[in-house]
Design goal:
Layout: H1 23-29, E1 33-38, E2 43-46, H2 48-54, E3 70-72, H3 86-93, E4 100-105, E5 111-122, E6 128-137, H4 139-157, E7 161-166, E8 171-174, H5 176-182, H6 186-189, H7 205-214, E9 219-227, E10 233-244, E11 250-259, H8 261-283, E12 286-292, E13 297-300, H9 302-308, H10 318-324, H11 327-341, E14 348-356, E15 363-374, E16 380-389, H12 391-413, E17 417-421, E18 427-430, H13 432-438, H14 442-445, H15 456-472, E19 476-483, E20 489-500, E21 506-515, H16 517-539, E22 543-547, E23 553-556, H17 558-564, H18 568-571, H19 587-597, E24 602-609, E25 615-626, E26 632-641, H20 643-683, H21 686-689, H22 693-724, E27 732-735, H23 737-751, E28 755-761, E29 767-770, H24 771-787, E30 793-801, E31 805-812, H25 846-856, E32 861-866, E33 870-878
Parallel strand pairs: 28-30
Antiparallel strand pairs: 1-2, 1-6, 3-4, 4-5, 5-6, 7-8, 7-11, 9-10, 10-11, 12-13, 12-16, 14-15, 15-16, 17-18, 17-21, 19-20, 20-21, 22-23, 22-26, 24-25, 25-26, 27-29, 30-31, 31-33, 32-33
């Protein structure tokens, strides 16, 4: 209950005029809000209307200046502290401040605009006693003003033409949109008839519209045509509303006209585009759908229905759709749809999931893409999207994935090191075997990281080869050294082939690499040993050959090639026979074939015509050989030049023949003479014995001569066997060689009466040698000199010496020896063949023994000779 302040008295009025009801009552009944403050501003009185305005009752004597709960300035925004309210302002100035607008907020949150008019109250002495304020609620007026201002602004700024007119069709307002659309200014149109805008053929539209308006009905989106100021016809859409007065009577019309010429064109274009899109979608087997969540409406295109296996007429809704989702994918899909439709979602959605096709219950993979459109309240209004059956694509993807996995498993378990590159030159795949070999990771090897593991000297080769291959898109084979995880570089072979797609597009390379280090080293060893064998085979003094399994020659060494003078290619097959003498050409191969059939060792002799024209005897020996599996692979054999052996044998035969003859002759002669002497002894009487003395003497002489001859022959044979068995021993002493020469010459002189033997010597000194053996050598040379100088003459024996050697030579004027024979005469059994030479008796062992003896003394023996002129035999002995 409002109470007047006890300390305050209304200005005195005449007693008689005192009213019968209290001032409080009067004040409470006032339709105007009023309240009073003392000079400090404490509220001392307020009426009901004031409390109603404030929305609560202030505390008397406590609350100051204003009873409102919250105060704002006239702008409705700036908070106004109570000491700034109109009452406070007025009290501070102690004079009326006129009307002031404030906004108050009541405890229930409602707001009111107030017009405050505070004025001061004075006591009888004229001092300020307080103030009275009347509050006028101007909220409705304020709201109206605001609305009108907004409306006017809207109308003015609207793009649409907004026009109002009377029921008679006279224009009363014309906004800027109308000016723009029709070309007339407001001044030109206000007060004019609206029919100015209506084309002649549509004049009858206006009465119909007016008729409808009069009934209070609205005309909405009426599409028609109107004329502009410059005579253009416009497609417009009209919305016309009746304007009512306060009593609800229709007094005019307000209409909004919108130019839809552009819209119409746009709509047509849109329709066309939609049609095109539909066709494109269909040809791409792209289904489209639209879901309006608020209406719960789901539309599926024909293609979409086909994908889901749903017939044309069948009704579909969101539940039907969710029922089609494959159970395992359902949660994921619904969650994603929820996300897209949620406010924080972007509204976009792209998912791959499985559906259970309605028609045949087949599980199909689909890709669904969509976009959510929100209304102004941020609620999902339309959800539009496409759907594509991607089962085949998925299947292919899976197949590809499977085949890639299969490849990887295979590649990783392959014993070869495999790498693969793309068309961009970089290697991006290395299998497990490779990575285990290098001990590095895929990331480390990838791109050109692998080059880091290549032996520095081989890097250039690798990059060059690879670069070239990339250009030509051709494979290559390369051997290089790669670092093994142990740190050691190992040789690997890189067998690289290009990869092409089914369309022939170059995709890069794939290569299998093999650790060939052991192999390579073994190969090097083989090469080494091959070289060694080749060298040996070529320098060997024997011919070497090989055949294939059919007996055809496949190999001949350099020695054989040199002998025959035929290059290797002419030796192959049976070419080697070319230089075999006609007499042996049949036999040797026949024997070979026979042996080969039995896989037996093959030995035969044949003669060849050597490159230098010599006919040589060859001994060939061959054996079958087998490959590592034990399979017969051919024959391998050698050819030895046995000409010398053959000749030696021949000479041995000759020697035996001759020796037996030589032995038989003296023995027969000895036997004859011994018989003769026996007969003389038995038959001849003592007196006749004297007469037989001469015969006896000559017979004994002959016997002695023959026995000497035999003795010499036997001792030569003994020497020969001693030499051959290595048992020729020397008994060395120091002696004067000159006396030895003299003795030997003396002995020789006894054997010839036709030769003069002279000694030439200025030597003084000794030699250390086996005196008897040197004597034997000297005697042998002297005997030969006499024997081979049938025409007699002088034989010179010279003896020379220096600090190192003593040189003794025997020169004869005999038959001489041909150059090519000169070395051979020191061989065992060697005798110069020739008509003349054969007439001289001998065994061909004298010079052999002499040369052996001299060699054992570390001396030398040689001959100088001119055929038919004579020979000089010289030997040296080291000085003791
Ligand atoms: P032989 O008993 O045949 O003489 P040698 O060994 O003494 O055997 O001599 C070997 C061969 O050397 C002889 O057969 C002969 O042809 C040749 N010869 C040796 N000495 C002479 C020489 N002084 N003059 C010519 N030919 C000789």
């Amino acid at each position: 209950m409002t109470k007047l302040s006890p300390g305050y008295q209304f200005p005195a009025q005449g007693e008689a005029e005192r009213p019968v009801f209290s001032y409080e009552e009067i004040a409470d009944r006032l339709p105007v809000a009023v309240y009073i403050c003392d000079k400090e501003g404490h509220i001392t009185f307020y009426n009901k209307a004031a409390a109603g305005l404030w929305g609560h009752e202030p505390r008397l004597q406590k609350d100051r200046w204003c009873g409102a709960w919250k105060l704002y300035g006239a702008d409705g925004v700036t908070p106004l502290p109570p000491d700034q309210c109109p009452m406070a302002v007025m009290l501070r100035g102690a004079k009326a401040v006129g009307e002031m607008e404030v906004l108050i907020e009541r405890p229930d949150g409602t707001r009111r605009y107030l017009l405050a008019s505070p004025s001061p109250l004075f006591d009888p002495e004229g001092n300020l006693a307080g103030g009275v304020d009347t509050l006028q609620d101007i909220t409705a007026q304020k709201e109206n003003e605001k609305q009108e201002a907004t409306l006017a602004a809207i109308v003015e700024s609207a793009e649409d033409a907004i026009v109002s007119k009377t029921l008679e069709g006279v224009v009363t307002s014309w906004n800027r949109g109308a000016e723009k659309l029709f070309g007339y200014t407001a001044a030109e149109m206000i007060g004019q008839s609206i029919t100015r805008l209506i084309p002649a053929d549509r004049l009858d539209e206006e009465p119909a519209i007016l008729e409808q308006l009069k009934k209070g009905a609205r005309v909405e989106h009426f599409e028609t045509k109107r004329l502009t100021k410059n005579g253009n016809l416009l497609d417009i859409s009209l919305t016309i509303s009746p304007v009512l007065n306060s009593k609800g009577t229709v007094i005019g019309a307000s209409k909004i006209a919108r130019d839809i010429s552009g819209d119409k064109r746009l709509r047509e274009a849109l329709r066309e585009r939609e049609e095109r899109l539909r066709m494109a979608s269909e040809s791409a087997k792209l289904g489209t759908w639209e879901y309006q969540p608020m209406e719960g409406k789901l539309d599926w295109s024909d293609e979409c229905r086909r994908i889901y296996g749903v017939s044309d007429g069948m009704k579909v809704d969101f539940t039907f759709f969710t029922d089609r989702i494959f159970s395992e994918d359902k949660d994921r899909v619904l969650e994603e749809i929820g996300r897209a439709m949620g406010r924080d979602g972007e509204g976009n959605y792209d998912l791959q999931f499985r559906i259970c096709r309605y028609s045949d219950k087949q599980v199909r993979w689909i890709r669904s893409q969509g976009k959510v459109y929100f209304n102004e309240q941020q609620q999902p209004e339309r959800f539009i999207g496409t759907v594509l059956d991607i089962t085949e694509q998925k299947k292919q993807e899976q197949e590809l994935k499977d085949s890639v996995e299969l490849f990887q498993t295979m590649a990783d378990n392959a014993p070869a090191m495999i790498w693969m590159s793309g068309s961009d030159k970089f290697n991006d795949y290395f299998n497990k075997t490779w990575l285990e070999f290098t001990g590095r990771t895929l990331a480390e090897e990838s791109r050109d990281g692998w080059l880091g593991g290549v032996y520095p000297d081989d890097v250039q080769l690798c990059t060059d080869t690879y670069g070239q291959a990339l250009q030509s898109q051709e494979g290559f084979y390369l051997e290089y050294r790669l670092r093994h995880h142990s740190g050691e570089y190992r040789w690997i072979s890189d067998n690289c082939v290009p990869r092409f797609s089914a369309q022939g597009e170059f995709l890069g390379f794939i290569s299998a690499c093999i650790d060939i280090d052991d192999q390579k080293r073994a190969r090097e060893k083989i090469l080494d040993s091959e070289l060694l064998l080749k060298t040996i085979s070529n320098v060997a003094p024997v011919g070497l050959w090989m055949t294939d399994t059919t007996g055809m020659n496949t190999f001949a060494n350099e020695t054989w090639i040199e002998w025959t003078g035929l290059p290797l290619e002419e030796q192959l097959g049976s070419g080697w026979l070319a230089k075999v003498l006609e007499e042996d050409k049949v036999n040797a191969p026949a024997l070979f074939r026979e042996a080969m059939l039995k896989r037996e060792k093959y030995t035969t002799e044949f003669r060849i015509l050597r490159q230098d024209g010599d006919i040589r005897w060859c001994l060939t020996e061959g054996s079958p050989f087998y490959d590592i599996n034990g399979v017969f692979a051919g024959y391998a054999g050698s050819v030895t030049d046995i000409t010398d052996i053959k000749k030696l044998e021949q000479r041995k035969d000759d020697f035996i023949k001759m020796a037996s003859h030589e032995l038989k002759t003296p023995i027969t002669s000895i036997k004859g003479y011994v018989q003769l002497l026996m007969n003389i002894y038995e038959e001849v009487s003592a007196d006749k014995l004297q007469a037989a003395k001469g015969t006896v003497k000559s017979s004994l002489g002959t016997i002695a001569k023959q026995v000497n001859k035999l003795t010499r022959l036997i001792s030569e044979l003994l020497d020969l066997s001693r030499i051959e068995s290595g048992k020729l021993e020397l008994d060395k002493t120091s002696f004067d060689p000159v006396s030895l020469v003299e003795e030997a010459v003396q002995d020789a002189r006894h054997t010839t009466s036709r030769h003069a033997i002279l000694i030439h010597s200025d030597y003084e000194g000794k030699v250390y040698a086996d005196r008897d053996r040197i004597a034997q050598v000297l005697l042998n040379l002297l005997t030969n000199a006499i024997k081979y100088s049938p025409d007699a003459g002088q034989i010179d024996v010279s003896l020379k010496g220096d600090k190192k050697n003593v040189t003794i030579s025997v020169a004869d004027p005999g038959i001489g020896i041909e150059k090519k024979e000169q070395q051979k005469i020191f061989d065992r059994f060697y005798r110069v063949e020739g008509k003349n030479e054969q007439t001289y008796p001998g065994f061909g062992i004298g010079l052999f023994i002499a040369s052996e003896i001299i060699q054992r003394h570390n001396g030398t023996i040689s001959v100088k000779s001119d055929k038919g002129k004579g020979s000089v035999f010289t030997f040296t002995l080291p000085v003791a």
